Amino acid sequence: MEETYFRRGFGLKARVQPLIDLEYQSALVEHLRSEGYRGVFGDVTVRLAKEFGFCYGVDRAIDYAYETRHKFPERRIRLVGEIIHNPHVNQRIRDMGMDFIRPGDDGTFDFSELTAQDVVVLPAFGVTVQDLASLRKIGCILVDTTCGSVLLVWKRVESYAQDGFTAVIHGKHYHEESRATASQVSRHAGGRYLIARNMEEADLVCDYIADRPGRLSRDVFIEHFEAKATVGFDPDVDLRMIGVANQTTMLANESLAIGARIRSAMVEGSGEEYAESHFRSFGTICSATQERQDAIEAMMEEGPPDVMIVIGGYNSSNTDHLAHLCRQFTTTYHIEDAACIDLENGTVRHKPDIGSDTPEEVATDWLPEGPLDLGMTAGASTPNNKIGEALLRVLDIRGVEIQLTG
């Protein structure tokens, strides 16, 4: 009987690695890394954050996608959504003949065209319990690239549901990872979840728990979180026992603060002893997300650059939060790709604020005259070649030519 589920690749890494290196590496970025993440080109001083770009989970997902194409050269291969949130990488996947199954407006997927002869790649964000069950029922070959850090959060959320705790998840309710994480509560009867986007939404939860004056009424609370909570969510019942988790790519400090604030609200409303037995929290920010955020903090401690460029998909949560963090210190441009920097007129297309629905803006005169201290980083799904290309475009606008030797 044919094996239909793969989570450890196919042992073809040595075969696909040269192609991956060719398509995603950058000699310029490697040069800067070897020079202490710093370089001087004409009047431009470039500083790279010391953690940036592809994380282990993204590397693994890309490896498995390339291996899958080599393993099944004649089969139809489909990916459930984007394998990662990077337009360049996703286009390369399409170029290799692997198409995407896009979610509907409600975030659900239609698998009706799949057959048992198809190969389906699950993205690094994972898929919901319900989608996995549907795919298994079809009988297609599944290649699971779900990140290990995401799996750890799933286990935590499932344990909450098993023990009768509601999972309060810091995340974006429309994001694939948060949807997949929230679905883990369905493994146990009566499992409940609520997704809080930010501290403002967490405060709505806290106000309700502590029964503060001016809190939302039960009906208004239910209406506000209708699309962000289990069907039939009842705040009078389901906020009594809470376990906190998060989408792995959120701002680490905010996730920790949300957990602490919810516990404080429990103490305020019912006392310390109650909170001790009715609240749980475990850090579930992935190490790569934490390291990239820490690297920004370290760079800013050295002295904020004049301009910061953050490169990564506009729907990439971890990139979004890197840009948000940088904006607290200096002028920051979140660009999706090096092509956002227009060599003809010297402008830059960028996303000016956090959120997947924030429209692009075009900035002119964005590079100050005189000596320029330029900082750069990239989200965990951004290949190094796109960082290198972006830097080359900035140097071109500044009239600086470079030639790497050795």
Show the helix and strand layout:
Blueprint: E1 5-6, H1 13-24, H2 27-34, E2 38-41, E3 44-48, H3 56-71, E4 77-80, H4 87-95, E5 98-101, E6 119-122, H5 129-138, E7 141-144, H6 148-162, E8 166-170, H7 176-183, E9 193-196, H8 199-210, H9 218-224, H10 235-238, E10 242-246, H11 252-270, H12 272-278, E11 279-281, H13 287-302, E12 307-311, H14 317-327, E13 331-335, E14 348-350, E15 361-363, E16 372-378, H15 384-397
Parallel strand pairs: 1-7, 3-16, 4-5, 4-6, 6-7, 8-9, 8-10, 10-11, 12-13, 12-16
Antiparallel strand pairs: 2-3, 14-15
Helix pairs in contact: 1-3, 6-7, 8-11, 11-12, 13-14
DSSP summary, beta strand count: 16
Distance linking N and C termini:
53 Å
Flag low-confidence runs: none
Biggest beta-sheet profile:
5 strands, parallel
Total of helices: 15
Say what oligomer this is.
single chain
Instruction: Return the domain count.
Output: 3
Q: Which percent band covers the strand fraction?
A: 15-25%
Structural commentary:
The protein has 406 residues and is of the alpha/beta class. It folds into three domains: 25-55 and 288-397, 4-hydroxy-3-methylbut-2-enyl diphosphate reductase, catalytic domain (Cobalt-precorrin-4 Transmethylase, domain 1, 3-Layer(aba) Sandwich), CATH 3.40.1010.20; 56-146, 3-Layer(aba) Sandwich (Rossmann fold); 149-281, 3-Layer(aba) Sandwich (Cobalt-precorrin-4 Transmethylase, domain 1). The protein is 41% helix and 17% strand. The protein contains 15 helices and 16 strands. It has helices spanning 13-24, 27-34, 56-71, 87-95, 129-138, 148-162, 176-183, 199-210, 218-224, 235-238, 252-270, 272-278, 287-302, 317-327, 384-397, and strands spanning 5-6, 38-41, 44-48, 77-80, 98-101, 119-122, 141-144, 166-170, 193-196, 242-246, 279-281, 307-311, 331-335, 348-350, 361-363, 372-378. The strands form four sheets. The chain has a five-stranded parallel beta sheet with strand order 1-7-6-4-5. A five-stranded mixed beta sheet has the order 2-3-16-12-13, with helices on both faces. Strands 9-8-10-11 form a four-stranded parallel beta sheet, sandwiched between helices. Helix 8 packs parallel to helix 11 (252-270), helix 11 (252-270) packs across helix 12 and helix 13 runs parallel beside helix 14 (317-327). The N and C termini lie far apart (53 Å). The model has no long low-confidence stretch (mean pLDDT 95).
